[in-house]
Automatic annotation (TrEMBL):
Region Disordered, annotated ranges: 347-389
Protein name per the record: WW domain-containing protein
InterPro entries: WW_dom_sf
Native source species: Aphanomyces astaci
Top-level division of the source organism's lineage: Eukaryota
Length: 389
């Protein structure tokens, strides 16, 4: 097809960000597929994600756009399955997700599909398939940053937990990593009953809001004025943008906690095949510029992330939102139904200072960061910082 169709000139181009393919079947991983197509419009920085989940056994299908379900099919239908949709900000740009019907394929194409079932799935935008779309320009290279949209830097979720204390203060914890082999990071949000909020990344304070009427609803992104609070933090060589929304319904005492990283909703991220060993949490070392991992109970500090297979771990965290949720990764929390648990201080630890090298791990300085292999100096740890005092 050649030429420009009517309406194309008024519609922006669709640029590829990346494609991720996962086998997510419980017993037989390859029995269920998940495709995540990430793209942007040429005149926008916002990343959109279309997710297709397809059970090759039951033929059930789920399609999500930016975490919200927009389509579903519960049974097998003969012939190719096609789902058409559009993104609300550009309703005139047509999109399609297509699943070819294996029995209706020719002999040669069927043989190829048996060897590689992924070729049965395709994504179309403006009449172009995924492979024909232009890649998003790596504009961050000119600023000295790595390509934040690389498949190796996609954010992956490790664990999500919510707990509270007797004062109805709620703590939300997101553990995540970038790529398969990156460091594990922890974003902690302390949502206090008096309306104050504390946001901490790897035991570094990002924000502390005092109890005010405006603090009762903390919305980091003002979609109308675009002047709301956006928490940005440079992790490694790349700036990854974290956006959190906290929505409170005072009459029902329910809260929603929503996290987006680089425009991707939490529930739409792929999960790692591992979790941290019980008791460990990441701490940012200011002198080394990276995280180490601390087990406060056993007074153990290590540089290499202490992991264990997810399949053999017992995770007490709330489950990831199911398909029935309208917005992912919104997590509805009934404060009265949460287990009453003691809550440790977010910043109850000792870390190296701005002008110090990391101290060696020992019984007398067990809460300091481990010794940096690149330095031989040893200095005492700085006293603990209590944000909640």
């Amino acid at each position: 097809m050649t030429g420009v169709q009517e309406g194309d000139l008024a519609s922006p181009s669709v640029l590829r960000v990346g494609l991720e393919i996962e086998n997510i079947g419980e017993r037989v991983p390859s029995s269920k597929k998940r495709f995540s197509w990430r793209f942007v419009f040429a005149d926008s920085e916002e990343v959109h994600t279309v997710t297709l989940e397809h059970s090759r056994v039951s033929s059930k299908k789920r399609v999500k756009l930016d975490g919200k379900r927009i389509g579903a099919s519960e049974s097998y239908t003969a012939g190719p399955w096609t789902f058409e949709f559009s993104v609300p900000c550009y309703p005139d740009v047509p999109f399609q997700v297509v699943i070819k019907d294996l029995p209706s394929l020719g002999l040669l194409e069927r043989a190829r599909a048996n060897l590689n079932p992924d070729i049965l799935y395709s994504f179309w935008a403006h009449g172009k398939n995924w492979e024909a779309l232009t890649d998003r320009p790596t504009k961050y290279e000119s600023a000295g940053f790595a390509n934040r949209w690389s498949s190796m830097s996609y954010c992956r979720r490790v664990q999500f937990t919510v707990d509270s204390n007797q004062q109805k203060d709620v703590r939300v914890s997101w553990l995540f990593t970038f790529g398969q082999d990156g460091d594990v990071h922890q974003l902690l949000l302390e949502d206090c009953a008096d309306g104050s909020k504390i946001l901490v990344l790897d035991r570094m304070s990002l924000r502390h809001d005092q109890p005010t009427d405006s603090a009762l609803t903390l919305d980091l992104v003002d979609e109308i004025n675009q002047d709301g609070w956006v928490a940005q933090h440079a992790i490694g060589d790349t700036e990854h943008e974290m956006m959190v929304r906290v929505l409170h319904d005072a009459p029902s005492l329910e809260a929603k906690y929503v996290l987006h990283i680089n425009g991707c909703p939490w529930a739409d991220m792929a999960a790692t095949d591992y979790v941290l060993q019980p008791g460990y949490y990441p701490v940012h070392s200011k002198s080394a510029g990276k995280v180490y991992y601390r087990d406060e109970v056993n007074k153990v500090t290590v540089w290499e992330k202490p992991i264990m297979p997810r399949s053999t771990s017992i995770v007490d965290a709330p489950t990831i939102p199911t398909d029935s949720n309208e917005e992912a990764p919104a997590k509805s929390v009934d404060l009265d139904e949460l287990l009453v648990q003691p809550m440790a201080d977010l910043m109850n630890f000792s870390d190296d200072g701005d002008h110090q090298d990391d101290g060696a791990t020992s019984g007398s300085s067990g809460s300091s960061s481990p010794k940096d292999p690149t330095t031989s100096e040893t200095t005492p740890a700085v006293a603990a910082v209590d944000l909640l005092a």
